[in-house]
Design brief:
By secondary structure, the chain is of the alpha+beta class. It has one domain (48-256). Helix content is 64%, strand content 18%. It has 9 helices and 5 strands. It has helices at residues 2-34, 47-53, 58-76, 93-106, 136-144, 161-186, 191-223, 246-269, 272-293, and strands at residues 80-89, 110-118, 122-132, 149-159, 224-234. The relative contact order is 0.11.
Length: 294
């Protein structure tokens, strides 16, 4: 009997061990069934509605502008426009012009505008020079040393980093709104909405063009500095150093005297109304005096 009970007891223990995991699984199924169904969860918003109702918030724009400004500051560092004015007195304009060409080639500069003037007293060669920003100081030193006597020198620097960054941030924001309006135009239903959106797009595109033009202008002025160079030569009035001789000067004096005489005569003629009044005044005065005697 004992031999029979022992195997039965072992079978009972084995059966109990198999029932426990089944019971756990049953509990888990009950827990899963007790979980709220999906019908009680709020449905996610449709992608189209998200696209239509999207508008950049002030915080988003602020984050964009801050990131843009930090990025621009890291990349741009500083935007400095350099300008200069230099007047040099030289002994020979032609020689100075050849030296100027060599200096420009050495510093990768070019002439934007050239003006030459030759009068009796002096010769002037005025040049507007554009030079890469990094070579500006070397160019100034090259002209100051050895070209001639420096009569005037004026160098100025204008830091436009703040303006450049401000324009860049506003430009980025305008492009964001431009894309938003273009998306709205695709889903516009009425003609009125289409016309209003198209007008907003046109205004934004004009503002973007102006901003981009301003940035290009600043970049050009920063990358290439401007130097106004004037080469001056004074003419000495002497027979040894000047081509103007005594005969020419004597003829000029006669012509100048004759012109002065003509100017004097014409000036007197211009007073003819007064000459007509003087006889009339004398006549009236004598008549009044005769009546007084009577």
């Amino acid at each position: 009997m004992r031999k029979l009970l022992i195997p039965l007891f072992c079978l009972l223990l084995i059966h109990c061990n198999k029932q426990e995991p089944i019971q756990v699984k049953a509990d888990l199924v009950e827990v899963l069934q007790e979980k709220p169904s999906d019908k009680y969860l709020p449905p996610p918003p449709p992608k189209e509605e998200i696209s239509k109702n999207y508008a950049p918030t002030a915080n988003a724009i602020s984050n964009i502008t801050e990131n843009k400004s930090e990025k621009d500051t890291d990349i741009i560092s500083k935007k400095v426009i350099k300008n200069g004015n230099l007047i040099i007195q030289v002994g020979d304009i032609k020689k100075a012009q050849n030296q100027t060409t060599e200096i420009l080639n050495k510093n990768q500069a070019y002439i934007q505008k050239e003006e030459f003037r030759n009068i009796d007293t002096d010769e002037n060669l005025n040049l507007v020079i554009r030079v890469p920003h990094k070579n500006f100081d070397a160019l100034i030193n090259s002209f100051s040393d050895g070209m001639g006597s420096v009569l005037s020198k004026n160098i100025s620097s204008d830091d436009v980093t703040e303006e450049y960054t401000d324009v860049s941030i506003k430009l980025a924001n305008k492009k964001i709104y431009l894309e938003k309006y273009r998306d709205m135009l695709k889903s516009a239903a009425t003609t009125k909405d289409i016309l209003e959106i198209q007008e907003n797009i046109r205004e934004l595109e004009d503002e973007i063009d102006v901003s981009e033009g301003r940035l290009r202008f600043i970049d050009d002025r920063v990358n290439y500095s401007t130097l106004n160079l004037s080469l001056y030569k004074e003419k000495v009035r002497s027979s040894a150093t000047s081509k103007i001789g005594f005969g020419s000067r004597f003829g000029d004096s006669i012509t100048e005297g004759w012109n002065s005489f003509i100017s004097f005569v014409l000036g007197i003629i211009s007073f003819w109304p007064f000459f007509l009044l003087i006889p009339l005044i004398i006549f009236l005065w004598r008549r009044w005096k005769a009546r007084r005697k009577k």
